[in-house]
Amino acid sequence: MKKNMLHLIxxxxxxxxxxxxxxxxxxxxxxxxxxxxxxxxxxxDVSQKDILKIAAGSKDHTTLVVAVKAxxxxxxxxxxxxxxxxxxxxxxxxxxxxxxxxxxxKPENKGDLENILYHHVLVGVFKAETFTDGEQISMFDxxxxxxxxxxxxxxxxxxxxxxxxxxxxxxxxxxxxxVLPKKK
Length: 184
What we know:
about 180 residues, FAS1 domain, single chain
């Protein structure tokens, strides 16, 4: 039931985002017809990358990208969002036994992998300066995580936020540990 609800929410967000791009209009102006020449006609793919494209282009997030693909969540992280993602590095995944990672990546464990990945996502954009020490945040999987702030450094449960990267559909906080959901 919970998994179906998460899929419905994700689908709803995707449909909502797509609805803005599907507006039919026959009201092209003269400037619309002439657009496309010069530098203004260039598409800016560098500063407008979504969360998934940023992770896929990072040499430090190859395991995360493999996990996202194994869980079938590519479309969810590429949709308009907005999302806050706590993105574990490859070094963070290396702290987990290799056999555990291999087991989670198997198709029959897709649900468990989804839950772990959803525990790294918040709906909305939460910049570092918006967090408070001791704050309980509700992750996308429905379980809580605790924010810690000490000497200006932010933690999410046991994971240190080591970098922050803006994205076209949210924000990425790079973390040095995989944040596992607490038992419900």
